[in-house]
Amino acid sequence: MAILLRLIVVLLMLANAVNSEEVIDYRMCPDTACLVYDLYVHPCPEALHNQPCEWKENSNTSIAFKYNPDFGANIPLTQLTSVTIFMDLPFLDIDMNACLYTHCPIKKDTEQYWFYNLFVPKNYGKTFYTVKVEFWDSVSYQTCCFFFALKIV
Ligand SMILES: *[C@@H]1O[C@H](CO)[C@@H](O)[C@H](O)[C@H]1NC(C)=O
């Protein structure tokens, strides 16, 4: 299963290679308990110029990355959040079951892969978003978390 997921991620990265780019302009949350690296956002040709990724409404997008957590989790949960000065709002509508996006159980101190396939609906809201990508162990609440900037156009 891990190998299959890895293969799928590699294939999707290749398929998306035309306009999927490595995003280096992201920052970890202060209390994160993991490393995140090799972050690929599709589409994001803007990353070449260190600009926020631009996603169109009514389109399929994806976020893929490698991570190495300080914690393990049998039942990990995840959410995407749009961070604003006033409050954090859910970003897109994703299933909180993290096992849909990575191999479960999540293993401590091990490199693993993450892949979200996302759909941006029509009339979602054309603006800048600071997206918080987050997953955590439902028992210990240890969390892996980072932010990146995105524009929906
Ligand atoms: C998004 O992906 C789904 C599933 O592959 C597909 O059915 C749909 O047509 C795609 N939507 C757009 C706008 O490309």
From TrEMBL:
Q: Which SUPFAM superfamilies match?
A: E set domains
Q: Where is the signal peptide?
A: 1-20
**Domain MD-2-related lipid-recognition: where?**
26-150
Query: Any idea which UniProt keywords this protein has?
Result: Signal
Source domain of life: Eukaryota
InterPro entries (UniProt xref): Ig_E-set, ML_dom
Report the protein name in the record.
MD-2-related lipid-recognition domain-containing protein
Q: Which organism is it from?
A: Macrosiphum euphorbiae
